[in-house]
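INTERNAL AUDIT FORM
Audit reference: QA-55
Scope: verify that the stored structure record matches its stored sequence.
Auditor: D.O.
Record contents follow.
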Amino acid sequence: MAGEDEGRLAAKLEQDFSSAVDVDVPECRKLAKNGQLDDALEKLVNLEKLTRTAGDMVSTGRVLVTIIELCYECQNYAALNEYLVIMTKRRSQLKQAVTKMVQRAMEFIDEITDQATKLKLIDTLRAVTAGKIYVEVERARLSMKLAAIRETEGNIAEASSILQDLQVETFGSMDKREKVEFILEQMRLCLANHDYISLQIMSKKISTRFFDNDQQSDLKLRYYQMMIAHGQHDKDYLTICKYYRSVYDTKMVQDDAQKRQEALQNVVIFVLLAPYNNEQSDLMHRVAKERNMDEIPVYNSFLEEFIRDEVLDWSRVCQTYEQELRVGSKCPATGTLNADTEDGRANWESLRKRVVEHNIRVIAKYYTEIRMSRMAKLLSLTDDECEESLSRLVVDKMIYARFDRLEGVVSFKKAADPAELLNNWSRNITELTSLVNRTCHLINREDMVFALAASKSA
């Protein structure tokens, strides 16, 4: 492909002006140094026309770069912006030459100290690169610089809007890692702007298979850090647990004992905070089998409490685990259940609800009927709180229960379906007739054996 491109360029080249450029460019630089910038630019513009019409891409690029360098060196920023626009709008302008000019002009941005001049140059470059595929990468980098400036000014909404206008995932000339870094920056600004919907949309542009390479561990951790923040906003505990599981499986985290323990602690906390379902139960059992669980014994013990089919006393839970979970002693606390933050207090209340739900499921497993007052006592709740928790689990289809308010009795026995009853009756009758037939067969066999023995003895 590269050979074909070079062949087309060579075929288009009608005359080589490299020798003329070698002579005229130094002369123009001398004119500019002597204060004759206009004369130097006029001479270069005439030379540019010759090189452009002759299809001499290399020479045209050198001339364009020289034009903007002279404007910059003379600190004539108005002329710099003007010639950037003029040169890109020339008829049949060579794309490679424009690319070189834009790339050179981008180098001036970091060198300019005046903020207004810098912004004007960025706006000019973004204007001349708009809609041109061959400078799409340069436009993306300019947008990144402009967004950073707007962010430092405190205008986060505008910074986020600037980056969201670009669809870098479609840029074929951009390196894959740079694409991911750009999308991560888009996600970060969406998060800073509390735009969680756009954050979720941006996150889907990154395939998590890209993070399978250990060399991308830094980007992987940045990605999951923002996804965890998004999950915490939505209170999606099970998804957060999966994110922390991915963080825990990262080689960079595995090699650091402190980071490994912190990630595993968060995995345990959020799998317990997640509402019960088949996926949560399966994940909880898999987490319990992790080989590094011995490094966090208190968290391991707390997880085992939820796996066992035993009623958990909330007061005992607080006495045994609260200090370690909220403050930390043997292991530093993660801050997820911190009593000093609003999110920490909300998460602690969610943990209390999960303990109650676990206890109700255990009671439903061992009882067919139980009085509400007795159930409330087992759960350390008032009757109203117990009824509310029970109703929530029934509505969520976690358990089956019926409550007789007059009698104050809760029944966990599911009403049999008529069709199921009929099928069970038919199956029982079939088994019964099979047993009768087998019994008759055995009796007849014994009679025949006895009769045969009697006839032989006679």
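Auditor finding: record pair retrieved intact. The longest strand covers residues 369-371.
Action required: none
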